[in-house]
Design brief:
It is built from no helices and eleven strands. Strands 2, 4, 5, 6, 9, 10 and 11 form a seven-stranded mixed β-sheet that branches. A four-stranded antiparallel β-sheet has the order 1-3-8-7, with no helix packed on it.
Amino acid sequence: QVQLVESGGGSVQAGGSLRLSCATSGDIVNTAAWFRQAPGKEREGVATIWTLDGDIYIADYADSVKGRFTIARDGDQRTFYLHIDNLKPADTSMYYCAAGGPRRSLDPQAYKYWGQGTQVTVSS
């Protein structure tokens, strides 16, 4: 079992940056991902990270966010982060972290554990 709690969302101006955090408890998380969902839209995977071996991990991103989003984790794999640069109004969404899915997957159906979400609102 894994519990996840997101934080770090807020209201920002376009062009700004935010760092979202996902604190985990329970079982160690080897694969985690960030998703977002805007009102009336489907949940979209934006970034995933998985541990290859010890301190070696790999990250992957949706094409739509490459270059602006960075996913990272603490060394103890208890906290995951999503750093977002150059925020755009189109980034306005509820952001969720998830765990318990396969490596490299950005399919929300593939993930077993979810946090409650943190809201990001970007104004122009």
